LRRC8 pannexin-like TM region domain-containing protein (Cyprinus carpio), 55 residues
Amino acid sequence: MFTLTEVASLNDIQPTYRILKPWWDVFMDYLGVVMLMLAIFAGTMQLTKDQMCYH
């Protein structure tokens, strides 16, 4: 996937301050939020389906 030198070169870029995060950090943040929302939605659907079956 990535060679060791490519990964090491990504870590060498360390400015004194960062205004913007790299695009892959932003993508992973959004992906994590979407996965959490889907998990909560799926859990809610399972709970409501179980409640409807037993009544």
